[in-house]
Design brief:
Shape: globular
Number of strands: 0
Helix content: over 70%
Distance between the termini: 71 Å
Oligomer: single chain
């Protein structure tokens, strides 16, 4: 069986350059759609915008939009994932400034709680209303989107356990429970089962989570 002749080096370089250029163009186009959607949410204070509005603002074509997204849901999912990834980076950076592992974990919990509370800005819209819709219809996508945050909290919990300030456990599972607790508490802001509306503070959420993590 005759082996296929190897491509000349110049041809391989040309193809690689072409592929890189095409990838960069695609990334730029996608980012324009994302930026346009962010701007619309910021202006409207809601995720109730149309695909055509995004296309018009991005100064691209509808055909181009559907090359990268199946529809508005997929665009919102991309925004959601992007927002959570950025939040994870910011929380990790802020927590790294604390030498005390418990203070670092507390800061992370309180930052997440504040970001997940209802509000008109873009992150709050995506953390809240869209996240709840997504959780009901597409739980696997929610799990994937939350992975960066889950990793950050698992690292912080493990760091606290290694320092001996909390009991050793299962950091990733504990992190998942903390995320669910914090984000649900933030979305249930001001509502209570007994009918009396009372704001749940970030400190209350932290104390509750600390008791669960430490077992005390």
């Amino acid at each position: 069986m005759t082996a296929a002749p190897e491509q000349p080096a110049w041809r391989r370089r040309a193809v690689e350059r072409s592929t890189r250029a095409a990838k960069l163009r695609a990334e730029e186009r996608v980012q324009k759609f994302l930026d346009s959607a962010y701007e619309l949410i910021a202006e409207k204070g809601t995720t109730d915008f149309t695909v055509q509005e995004v296309v018009n603002r991005s100064k691209q074509s509808l055909r181009s939009f559907y090359q990268y997204f199946d529809g508005k849901h997929e665009l919102l999912l991309a925004l959601f994932e992007d927002t959570l990834a950025k939040s994870a980076d910011e929380i990790r950076e802020a927590a790294a400034s604390k030498s005390d592992p418990l203070r670092a974990l507390r800061l992370a919990v309180e930052m997440l709680h504040e970001r997940a509370r209802p509000g008109p800005d873009v992150p709050r819209q995506l953390f809240g209303r869209f996240a709840l819709q997504l959780l009901v219809k597409h739980p696997s996508q929610v799990a994937t989107a939350h992975r960066p945050l889950l990793t950050v909290f698992a690292e912080l919990i493990e760091r606290a356990a290694d320092a001996g300030v909390i009991a050793a456990g299962r950091p990733r599972r504990q992190a998942a429970l903390v995320l669910q607790t914090v984000m649900f508490a933030a979305q249930a802001h001001g509502s209570a089962a007994d009918g009396r509306a009372e704001t749940v503070t970030s400190e209350e959420v932290w104390r509750f989570c600390l008791g669960g993590i430490s077992g005390t």
